[in-house]
UniProtKB/TrEMBL annotation:
UniProt organism field: Devosia crocina
Domain of life: Bacteria
Protein name listed in UniProt: Uncharacterized protein
Length: 72
């Protein structure tokens, strides 16, 4: 049995919480919202995590630091 690594991303457009299994996700994979299909970010590996597809407002970045759930 392989160890599963999960990440959660909250869509800023519709507020849907998206759960992604990242343990076998290829680098550069684009992730979209499961509800509205908007781009959420790109997987950049375990150390960098998800990088947003679009610039994030400074207020959202400061709220996300230290949280396990990132809002993109």
């Amino acid at each position: 049995m392989s160890l599963q690594t999960l990440s959660t991303l909250t869509c800023l457009h519709c507020g849907t919480i998206n759960t992604v299994t990242t343990s076998e996700l290829p680098l550069g994979t684009l992730i979209g919202c499961s509800h509205c299909r908007r781009d959420l970010g790109q997987w950049c590996g375990a150390q960098l995590g998800f990088q947003p597809s679009l610039p994030i407002p400074a207020a959202v970045v400061s709220q996300a630091k230290g949280d396990t759930e990132l809002s993109f």
